[in-house]
Design brief:
Helices cover about 80% and strands about 0% of the residues. It is mostly helical. It has a single domain, classed as A middle domain of Talin 1. The strands form 2 sheets. The protein has a two-stranded antiparallel sheet. The protein has a two-stranded antiparallel sheet with strand order 2-3. Helix 1 runs antiparallel to helix 8, helix 3 packs parallel to helix 11 and helix 4 packs antiparallel against helix 13. The longest helix is centred in the middle third of the chain and has 33 residues.
């Protein structure tokens, strides 16, 4: 591997992040100048924008015949979003989980993750199936727009703290600036995706690992940089519900929009390798399942849970590297994780969830007293 490959990879990542930032800011201000609600902007334009690097890389990879990299990018990004980004954010400060996430969004994330396994079971996600996934993101966005009617002044203030003061609808003279920001962002995404893909393929060949592993690790983390920045900064600023919502929303858009659109535009769809079906996609589903008891327990993600997520991300990455190298350590590493660490974690989460439910449930005496008061 040459220095030129490393520089190409670094410049590609920088262009992806800068391009996504320019796209989000330009599109947000363009929509606001047109009089669109800040909540709708945050839940649609910003969500699409932070998933734009994944979309650019996956589309370019599929059209270039490197389909494993496209699937690995989406699956790896979703795993990275929860285990790495949510873990880091929770270490900064315990994260609040909004009630809406528990009622709706986290279940959509889980259903989308299972859909990837079911649709790819035959080895390919076809164009029609991809169109179905993309239709799902349109329905999801329509639901978000409906929810925006409940917007409050606090929502607008929170959005402005994150992305700056929104322009008035009358400031049409600045529209060319916003359009230019969007175009610069799109250009950065396209060029950054091209450079990153070329460098990633060269790196995979130099290290003797598959494009799937590169997509699941290096590119997944690289294209998740906008989510990392948004969630960690939100946690530092005390906007802790944004940190969790950003991750859940990004995972939904990654599957419905990125994977769906990639499969829909590619003539032969997106092939799904047996390795991804047997291991990586089930890991993505397991990560989504773990979010349910963690979020539900106290409607927050504590620091020790964030640390647990980070430890599992390290374990997952180590496993990928060992498997790619066919390292002898796999002989003890795999059964230890499967039969010791995972069961202990499952028991711990079950006990913690049970305690959380017990704390929420009112005492029997209090409930009887309340019923007696009502009868009187």
């Amino acid at each position: 591997m040459t220095l030129a490959t490393l520089l190409l990879f670094a410049f590609g990542l920088v262009l992806l992040v800068v391009g996504a930032e320019s796209l989000v800011r330009g599109a947000s201000r363009l929509a606001a100048a047109a009089g669109i609600s800040p909540l709708v902007i945050g839940l649609t334009v910003v969500a699409f924008g932070t998933s734009a690097p994944e979309l650019a890389v996956s589309l370019k990879a599929s059209l270039s015949g490197v389909a494993d990299l496209a699937v690995g990018n989406v699956v790896g990004s979703n795993i990275c979003n929860v285990l790495l980004i949510l873990g880091l954010s929770a270490l900064v400060a315990p994260l609040a989980v909004a009630s809406q996430l528990l009622r709706f969004d986290v279940w959509i994330m889980l259903a989308a993750s299972v859909a990837v396994l079911l649709l790819g079971w035959n080895g390919v996600i076809g164009r029609l199936e991809g169109a179905g996934l993309f239709a799902a993101v349109l329905l999801y966005t329509a639901w978000l727009i409906r929810q925006s009617r409940r917007e409050t002044a606090e929502v607008r203030a929170e959005f402005e703290r994150e992305f700056g003061e929104l322009p008035a609808a009358a400031s049409r003279r600045l529209w060319p600036v916003y359009v230019l920001q969007v175009l610069v962002g799109l250009g950065g995404l396209v060029l950054g995706a091209r450079w990153l893909l070329i460098a990633a393929v060269a790196m995979a060949r130099a290290f003797g690992v598959s494009e799937l592993v590169i997509g699941l690790t290096v590119i997944a983390v690289g294209t998740s940089l906008p989510e990392i920045a948004a969630s960690v900064v939100a946690a530092i600023r005390g906007e802790r519900d944004i940190a969790v919502g950003n991750i859940v929303g990004s995972n939904i858009f990654n599957i419905f929009c990125v994977l769906g659109l990639t499969a829909a535009v590619c003539p032969s769809g997106v092939p799904v390798s047996p390795t991804a079906l047997a291991f990586d996609i089930p890991v993505m589903i397991a990560v989504a399942i773990v979010c349910v008891p963690v979020f539900f327990r106290d409607q927050r993600v504590d620091r020790y849970e964030g640390l647990l997520f980070l430890v599992y991300y390290v374990i997952y990455t180590v496993y990928l590297i060992l498997a790619a190298r066919h390292h002898p350590a796999l002989a003890w590493f795999r059964p230890t994780m499967l039969y010791v660490v995972l069961p202990l974690t499952a028991v711990g989460l079950a006990v913690a969830t049970g305690r959380g439910v017990a704390r929420r449930r009112p005492p029997a005496d209090a409930a009887q007293s309340a019923n007696g008061a009502q009868s009187r």
